[in-house]
Amino acid sequence: MTSNEIQVIPEESATTDPRATVITVRTAADIAQSELGHHVRVCYSCRIGQDGMCAEGELLSAAFSSAIVVSVIAHEEYAPTGSTVTYHGTETRHRGPGWTVCSTVQGSWGTSYTIARNADRAQDVILKGVRIECITPVQDDPRFTGR
């Protein structure tokens, strides 16, 4: 190929994994938190905090807050509270279908889920801090509103 030729690169098809978008916004929140943390460590005004944060610190703080909100919304859309999911995480004895999403839990860099099995019984099993990589929504759940 000569320098005058244009190479056409086929456009990659959009991902079919709906988790990818949610993981992307969670990663953006993680990056925003890291940038804010780095700034606070090197900025004397923000570190001592007597007069609040400097202008850059305020902008980074607002960006982090916005990223967390976007992440929480994306997690709730992926597996809404009350929806049924299949758990395939590290708790091997609890893997499988039949879990109900109790809530999304905002963490320092994004969101995780609290899920329960047999939530309507006294002997329910509750898992907290379940990351999105460990659950898959059940598509035929009438409460499912994703995709």
Explain briefly what this protein structure is.
By secondary structure, this protein is α+β, with helices and mostly antiparallel strands. Helices cover 36% and strands 22% of the residues. It has helices at 19-42, 44-48, 55-78, and strands at residues 84-87, 96-107, 110-117, 125-130, 135-137.
Structure write-up:
- The protein has three helices and five strands; from the N terminus they run αααβββββ.
- It has helices spanning 19-42, 44-48, 55-78; strands at 84-87, 96-107, 110-117, 125-130, 135-137.
- Strands 4-3-2-1-5 form a five-stranded antiparallel beta sheet.
- Helix 1 (19-42) runs antiparallel to helix 3 (55-78).
- The radius of gyration is 21 Å and the shape is elongated.
Largest sheet: 5 strands, antiparallel
Tell me the strand order in the biggest sheet. Answer: 4-3-2-1-5
Number of helices: 3
List the secondary-structure elements in sequence, H or E.
Answer: HHHEEEEE
Report the mean per-residue pLDDT as an integer.
80
Gyration radius (Cα, Å) is 21 Å
Q: Which percent band covers the strand fraction?
A: 15-25%
Terminal CA distance reads 42 Å
How many strands?
Answer: 5
Provide keyphrases for this structure.
147 residues, alpha+beta, five-stranded antiparallel beta sheet, 36% helix, disordered C terminus
Write the layout of secondary structure elements.
Blueprint: H1 19-42, H2 44-48, H3 55-78, E1 84-87, E2 96-107, E3 110-117, E4 125-130, E5 135-137
Antiparallel strand pairs: 1-2, 1-5, 2-3, 3-4
Helix pairs in contact: 1-3
